[in-house]
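Sharing a chain and its predicted structure for anyone who wants a worked example. Both blocks are below, sequence first, tokens second.
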Amino acid sequence: MDDPLKWFIFDLQLLADGDTGEKTEKATPRRREEARKKGQVFKSADLSAAIILLAGSMALLFSFPYIVSQIKGFTQLYLLQRGTQSLTQAYTYYMFLEVMQLLGRVCFPVLGATFVTALLVSYLQVGFVFSTESLTPNFNRINPVEGFKRIFSRRALVELIKSLAKVFVAGYVVYTVIKDNYAVFPRFIDMELGASMVVFGDLVFEIALKVGIIYVIIGIVDYIFQWFDYEKSLKMSKYEIKQEWKQNEGDPLIRSRQKQIQREMAMRRMMSEVPRADVVITNPTHFAVALRYDAPRMTAPVVVAKGQDYMALRIREIAVLNRVALVENPPLARTLYSSIDIGDVVPEELYQAVAEVLAFVYRQKKIAL
């Protein structure tokens, strides 16, 4: 009888190399760099606006005497000195230019401070980013389905809460300031223009300062939220990390095969040098080091091949086939194997031991001849 559960059995390995869609891993540096190139950076517009508001308020406070003096001077000039001037077309044009210059002088401190603050705040949040990705046409932006998803998303809910909080805070601050200074407003009727402007300016500055401070607190909270949301949007699945690693480093199987080929080529080159060696110093079975010494060309013997266990056996076999002398000297063989790389010369502290071996080999060759 067939097992009724067999139809529900499947191999989990089928999912081993697939993307499960679970983005649980932190973004890699490459992912972050690609996102930055696309202009995908996190920043808090509320924090920037709050700091700009504070900067503008402070600039207005410190430049207020200057602004009053400029307006006062302009008013005195046209009321007292040029009050009888006929309004010709040329004079009207000249007066318009002077009004524009006055507006420039009056607005420059506040506009300059806010402009510099906006640049500085944006740079501190995201640095210098230039990307044309946002200018590329994207039809998903006009997709109704995607539009509804954005409207009812978590980000939209957070933006709604922030907007309501800012409206409530601004309204409450204006209400409290007006309530605390309610008795001042009837006195504006008896005040001179300059004094009334000073009092009214103090009230406006108090409102701007209190609203700005609370907005900065809201902006800091928004900055933290934007950071968390940005990190979440950059998260990667294990499959994506694996694919990125393959693109950067190559397939592990291919790299392993390349390393194996490189080792085989290096071994063949090393083995091809054994027939040219003068002597092979052995352990006798575990280590083998082949030395070559050409007195006219070399200042000291050179290690042309070395190996352990199987490689040592292969070196000895090739040496025997090519009639290269084998000398058993376990201490010297171990020392040469562990302290000298292939292609390096024998160090001075081993000159005496190696010279004795080579002298023995040369004597044996002379006797054989």
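Comments welcome. The chain has eleven helices and four strands.
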